[in-house]
Amino acid sequence: MAAYKRPLVGLVLKVPLNVLTPAVLTRALLALALLTLYVVSGFSRTVTVAAQAPPQRIISLIPSTTEMLFAMGAGPRVIGVGNFDRYPPEAMTRIKVGGLIDPDVERIISLKPDLVVVYGTQSDLRAQLERARIPMFLYQHAGLPDITATIRELGTRVGSAKEAHALAGKIEADIEDVKKRVSGRTRPRTLVVFGRDAETLRGIYASGAIGFLHDMLEAAGGTNVFADVKRQSIQTTSELAVARAPEVIIEIGVDTASAKGRNLSAWDALSSIPAVRNKRIYQLRGDGMMNPGPRISGSVRRVAEVLHPEAFRK
User: Fold this and answer.
1) Which of 14, 56, 178, 208 could form a disulfide with 231 if both were Cys (CB 3.0 to 4.6 A apart)?
2) Stated pTM of the model
3) Does CATH place domain 41-179 in 3.40.50.1980?
4) pLDDT per residue over 160-219, tens digit each?
5) Closest Cα partner for 250 from 231, 222, 291?
6) Considering the domain 6-39+183-312 in this protein, what is its CATH number?
7) Could you give the dihedral angle defined by the CA atoms of residues 87, 252, 32 and 294, in that order, rounded to the nearest 10 degrees?
């Protein structure tokens, strides 16, 4: 069994005690859970190969790798997916086998898979699968370039290398097109928010300078107001948001429906912030925005279109 490893980078969230009401704590835990599911704590990935033949019964516990498998044409061989795997729609027809925190080990083994794609942090699950002699692809994600690297590695592992390389190349070409369009333009200082209280500015979770959310903003022609904070994410306050003075605020998230209830006017209380004063606050919703998978180039473009709309006018 061969393994390839890179250093790990941890996730640190600082929560002020004066805002830890039960409601805020619940929202904070939800935001952390979503970030863990889609961003995987800013870690790199480990790939373990224990079998050479292309697998025919694949289980993927990770939304992004499930989407990758379907996008490269390996979807018909996927027999089980994680509880939070929503895309493509075909994935919803597969057997649910748990997630990051609660994998259903008995069900996974009972399905007799010949490859299971798991988070590298799922040490208990990994140990049980190793005892059952079930091959694994151990996944953890880092930055934007790692998305296409993972697609290529996973494609090679499942016997779809040609399709995976074509998919990764298309994603890279699309991102490069966005970079060319915004090249040479002023890069607005941007606050990227991926979670907060729906009606107030409490429990604001923002992108730090590590991870694919930060990389996505940079590729789209923006400058992260927290570029000096070397973390995947931080919990900020309205006072710190004022101090950082973003010219643009972008709120991203998974659930499009719930976004309708999110009150952007909560920012109006901070009129000293340039983004508020100039009405440059945007919502970009949908699970593709928080999923480091094949739709990432579209997410980069969506961010670029609100930062530099003039670059995309026909």
Assistant:
1) 208
2) 0.82
3) yes
4) 999 999 999 999 999 999 999 999 999 999 999 999 988 889 999 999 999 999 999 999
5) 222
6) 3.40.50.1980
7) 30
